[in-house]
Amino acid sequence: MTLLTRASPQTLRLLALALALLATILFFATQIEGYLSPRMFNRISTSAAVVLPIAVGQAIVIMTRNIDLSAGSILGVVAYMAGQTLSSMPDLHPILAVLFCMALGAALGAINGLIIAWGRVPSIIVTLGTLALFRSFLVEWSDAKTITTASLPQWLVDLPSANAFSIGGLDIRVTVVLALAAVLVTGLALTFYRPARRFYAVGSNPDAALMAGINANRVVLTAFVLAGAFAGLSGFLFLAKFGNITVVAGLGYELKSIAAVVVGGVSIMGGSGSMIGVLMGALLVDTIDNSLTRWAVVSEFWRDALLGGLIMAAVTVDTLASRQLARLRKGGSE
Amino acid sequence: MMKLTGLAFAAGLATLMGSTAMAEPVTATPGQAVNAVLLPKFLGILPFDQANRGAQEAAAELGSTGTLEFIGPTPENSAAGQIEMLTNATTQKQNVVMLSNNAGDQIAPAAEAAAAAGTKVVTWDSPIPNGAGESFFVAQVDFGSIGVVMADMAFDLAGGAGEVAILSASPDASNQNAWIEAMKGTMASDAKYKDLKLVDVVYGNDQSEESYNKALGLVDKYPDLKVIMAPTTVGIVAAAKAMQDEGLCEKVKVSGLGLPAEMVSYSLNGCAPQFALWSFVDLGYLTYQASYALATGAIKGDVGEEFTAGRMGTFKIEEDPGRPGAKRILMGPFTVYTKDNVEAAAN
Amino acid sequence: MTQPVLELLGLSKSFAATQALKDMSLSVMPGEVHAIVGENGAGKSTLIKIMTGVHQPDTGTIRVDGQPVTLKSTQAAQDAGIAAIYQEPMVFPDLNVAENIFISNRAKGRIMRWSEIHAEADALISPLGVKLDVRRAASGLTLAEQQTVEIARALSLKVKVLIMDEPTASLSAHEVARLLDIARALKAQGVAVIYISHRLDEIFRIADRVTVIRDGQHISTKPIAEVTEDGLVKDMVGRALESFAVKTAANPHGETLLSVKDLGLQGTFKGITFDLHKGEVLCLAGLVGARRTDVALSLFGIAPATEGTITLAGQQVSITTPQQAMDLGIAYVSEDRRKLGLAMPLSIFANISLASLGKLLKPFGLIDRAAEAEMAETYRKRLAIRSPDTLIEVGKLSGGNQQKVMLAKWLETKPRVLIFDEPTRGIDVGAKAEVHAIIRQLASEGVAILVISSDLPEVLALADRVLVMREGRQAGILPIEEATQERVIALAAGQASAERPAA
């Protein structure tokens, strides 16, 4: 009781999330042979690595009380155009390739941000529009051509299986390091960089932000630009990992990213959330997704339903718990 | 393996021979105005673009003074988008819609409405399962023979015995479903395949990342798996990439239906030593030829009618053995690609 | 004499046709507590918004430390050393206390040194005499604690002038005492405090000088020693007093229709007891925050009372939903026409029939359009709604006509008890007189009427009796013969002398 009222809601949320992750892993360990293996670690870590950057960007946007439904389409456009660029310029330096992806994503994100911040159109409507718009652009642009692994430079093809380092038999792949770097840098900025704190302020109480002299429009624009840049980074990782890019690349990633963010305890009402939470949320969603694929008990058709049910359960528990907590606090202070 | 390909050739030959036994094949008069729509499952992947190339080629040859539009839904909206576009084509009074159906039987009412309003619906690549509203289906190959060739490639790659899993496109794709059924039928009916075990069917929904993850899921779930059979061009290449990334190419072979251009590296490095496909360019070409003949009244769309299809020769309308009551034109044959012929085909 | 820290010279400000401030001048000395008092609508909030950079004056000059300044944003006002705290504090619930304090402090650099920030926040908070963990999130802080955070925020900006706008409206007595202590401490540090409150007792406890404003104009500024409560009230009410004091004789009261005893809603109001007779107009008077609307909402079932009894026509009833209230014949004409009363995009007739559609049903649940239009037309004529027909969107009507549409909607339900909440707020003088006439007319037809109004002349013009509320309590009931503006204000503001004769 004292613990419940003294620890911050965020801390409790993270604790609950860590427990859920642990419980999930333990459960599947009893169900799937050879589950607790370096191989399984690789499967989940490399798969989560693609989702993580886009989830980081989504989290920033959601913190400002907005949402980015176009993130998956941005990922697709970036993955495709980056693939094209690298096919025609195979000597492009890898770092420049990553920067190209992030810049392209940021430009697409800026389109969202400008319309939302200065056009005063709700983000859900704008990004629903650009979700279709960016995808249609890609269909036009691609001219029905597929980017194939064969046309990509060798360093990119080899990237997904490249090891950064190993800890105790667990291989940490380069792509995983890239994704974790995105989480770490953003996490540090959101904690220690004053301008980044404004994402929380604007989402927490827009009126108060105005009174405190914060330019909310600029903050929202920045959030969408960052979300685009991170979707671009995910696009790069997507291109590296899957190699064969068609116009359907990244379809549904907006929902995956929202799921990771929401399960990770970022309030859909804005104002709160942490990168640790997003990391755990992405891991939890991906662990469940990957484990269900390998679990003989659940048929193909129930997998998505189960995943959806789980996300709803996470959000419901979160809401109920926060409400209960608020009641406890109120009761305690009187 | 080669014997089977031969069988397919034999089937094609039988068609040709059958045709000479009947009345003279008709030839449609060139230069007429046929407004046609080529409606693929969705836009943006190579096979459909190739089909469009073939259709445009045929339209140019026939000198149609009408239009040939290549339109299709975006990938996330495939089924609903197809129904909407078919309905639109009907109201625009197009003469013929050439449809690669991705909406199962859901599209049948729209197709029947189109037929009633005078817009002919010709399916290709993937038919309307119950055949309603469709004039005929231009089949790339005999669906039964795809079952045989898939079973045979699996047999070869598994060394005659072991576990096989299927990575398909979407659970609603009627062509893939028919091929999988045909493969199962072949494996059940011939004692040759008794040591091959089909352990699972999973779906990658024609998305690279989903197919990739599903392929990895299969090898984790079935440690003794020897072959992943992917009767979809997106799935096969994603599965091959997954095996290559995980260094599993020695252990698990990937096969199925793939485009040589996309598969060349995996064929050469042994991840996918054998796969099959027909020419989508030819499929588009033949579909347009048949649709033009139908729209100009040269053929009625009845069983037994024969017509000439430009450079591809003569074809005949016949009962579709897989769909009672429905009609098809069988293109065939398909080619089995190995490291010996894939490079030539890729360019 | 030292130089004033803030001078306002000849400020005027108009919003559309309303002149909110007229030639307003004020000077505030460093280290003084300067109270500003005035009735609701006297122009206090406009004045505050100009001082904090939310609005800009049409004419006039603002000087800080003798230098003319332009306050074009809240940021500019803060840079000039002026900050405000409000009745409803502006905190960020998800950020912790320390960050709330330093959020807009640009002098702090780009990197958050959390331990430093926490230590500095602690150093700002603890002299304020409040125990507050600066690391905890601001959500769940009490109003008083949130105010403390805002004061600390203002102090961190090294303010020269701190405006406190009705800071005690929602505070307990203990919290008020602490806030006044804080104000004194600030004063000792040389900060000028502009203190705006309806509560005269607080003003006498804290202020050095007091300025009275009325109708957007400066009336007087005097040292506190030179004013009395009566004098202040007279200045606030002004001459308008006589013009409205004449009141027609009260209607002879019919039988008791509604009887309310010890009505209360936890944490909101308590101990409300009155009888309402047929044909009587009872006005609920009080200051903003006296919780009058909450009483009305509980009678209408929107926020049901948790204690006490309601008796209607001799039957004890419990009202927990608006539907129940309507079934009992209670109607509520709300203050906020947009939020609670009218569907702005719909036509006049659709709005009028909204609450009584049940009567207009044809077989199969269809609505009888002809009857609906006829009903609306009847009201349009009877209430003189200025509109060519009843098809016009309500959103396009003037405030007074909107008020009449809302009234028509409720009259059609044939209420026995009609509750008006601020019936004439925001409507012009002519329409106001019409609404008053309608209310008196309804009363004479036997409807029991409860009117909530912050407009004292209106209360005195309409009421048969006046129930005065203060901070969720019933301060007294005055028969109209005994009700004067001074007595009502005295009761509402909690002036001790007036309370005794009323009790």
What does this structure look like?
The complex is a heterotrimer of chains A (334), B (347) and C (503). Chain A has 334 residues and is an all-alpha fold. Chain A is 75% helix and 3% strand. Chain B folds into 2 domains: 2-141 and 279-333, Rossmann fold (3-Layer(aba) Sandwich); 143-275, Response regulator (Rossmann fold). Chain B has an 8-stranded mixed sheet, with helices on both faces. By secondary structure, chain C is α/β, with parallel strands linked by helices. Chain C is built from 19 helices and 20 strands. Chain C has helices spanning 44-51, 74-79, 97-102, 114-125, 143-156, 173-188, 200-206, 229-237, 240-245, 292-299, 322-327, 337-341, 348-353, 369-382, 399-411, 429-444, 456-462, 485-493, 496-502; strands at residues 6-15, 18-28, 33-37, 59-64, 67-69, 82-85, 161-165, 192-196, 209-214, 217-223, 256-265, 269-277, 281-286, 307-312, 315-317, 330-333, 417-421, 448-452, 465-470, 473-479. In chain C, the strands form 4 sheets. A 6-stranded mixed sheet of chain C has the order 6-7-8-3-9-10, with helices on both faces. In chain C, strands 16-17-18-13-19-20 form a 6-stranded mixed sheet, sandwiched between helices. In chain C, helix 6 (173-188) links the parallel strand 7 (161-165) and strand 8. The two termini of chain C are 47 Å apart. The A-B interface holds A 32-34, 39-40, 43, 47, 50, 132, 135-136, 138-139, 142-146, 148-150, 160-161, 238, 241-249, 251-252, 289-290, 293-294, 296, 300-301 and B 42-46, 48-49, 52, 74-76, 171, 201-203, 206-209, 212-214, 216-217, 220-221, 223, 234, 237-238, 241, 245-247, 261-262, 264-265.
Notable features of this structure?
heterotrimer, B: 347 residues, alpha/beta, Rossmann fold, 2 domains, eight-stranded mixed β-sheet, four-stranded parallel β-sheet, 11 helices, 14 strands, elongated, disordered N terminus, C: 503 residues, six-stranded mixed β-sheet, 20 strands
In short:
The complex is a heterotrimer of chains A (334), B (347) and C (503). Chain B is α/β, with parallel strands linked by helices and 347 residues long. Chain B has helices at residues 2-21, 46-62, 78-91, 108-116, 143-158, 174-189, 208-221, 233-245, 260-268, 280-295, 342-346, and strands at residues 36-39, 68-70, 96-99, 120-124, 136-139, 162-168, 196-203, 225-230, 253-256, 275-277, 306-308, 314-319, 327-330, 335-337.
